[in-house]
Specification:
This protein has 137 residues and is mostly helical. Helices cover 67% and strands 0% of the residues. The protein has seven helices and no strands. Helix 1 packs across helix 3. The chain is globular, with a radius of gyration of 14 Å.
């Protein structure tokens, strides 16, 4: 299970991801607020993290890292709105975040490639898990 420090780190990482190239748009803000609620992080703590990022804490659990990567995929899709370029800054940013989380290069590349074949570029969780499970074993 993920502890409070890890949860705050996850959310802070997602905020940094959303702010990478510009300010956070309303749709991104609402998505991040929803993730905060899902992680049992108060709105006050969420607002604090927007202005005061905390240090990244590496998740020990491989499955938790996969869940976080999936959240980042969803956030990137919100951020990109129709950008079809697989070499876009968002895709490169997502790839680098995945590597930093300790996920395999092959799995990340496969997810990014397969995104194109799904509606709205949203890879279903079960497909994403299968990709990482195959590479992990």
């Amino acid at each position: 299970m993920v502890n409070r420090v890890e949860k705050l780190s996850l959310l802070s990482e997602m905020i940094a991801f959303a702010k990478y190239d510009k300010d956070i748009r309303r749709i991104e803000y609402n998505f991040l607020l929803g993730v905060a609620k899902q992680l049992d992080i108060s709105r006050e703590d969420f607002e604090y993290l927007l202005e005061n990022p905390i240090t990244y804490t590496h998740l020990k659990s491989h499955s938790e890292r996969i869940v976080q990567f999936h959240r980042l995929v969803l956030l990137m899709n919100i951020e990109q709105e129709g950008n079809e370029d697989n070499n876009s800054p968002g895709v490169i940013k997502l790839y680098n975040f995945g590597l930093r989380m300790g996920l395999s290069h092959e799995s990340i590349t496969k997810v990014l490639y397969l995104m194109e074949s799904f509606p709205n570029k949203i890879v279903p969780p079960d497909v994403l898990i299968d990709i990482f499970k195959t590479q992990y074993n």
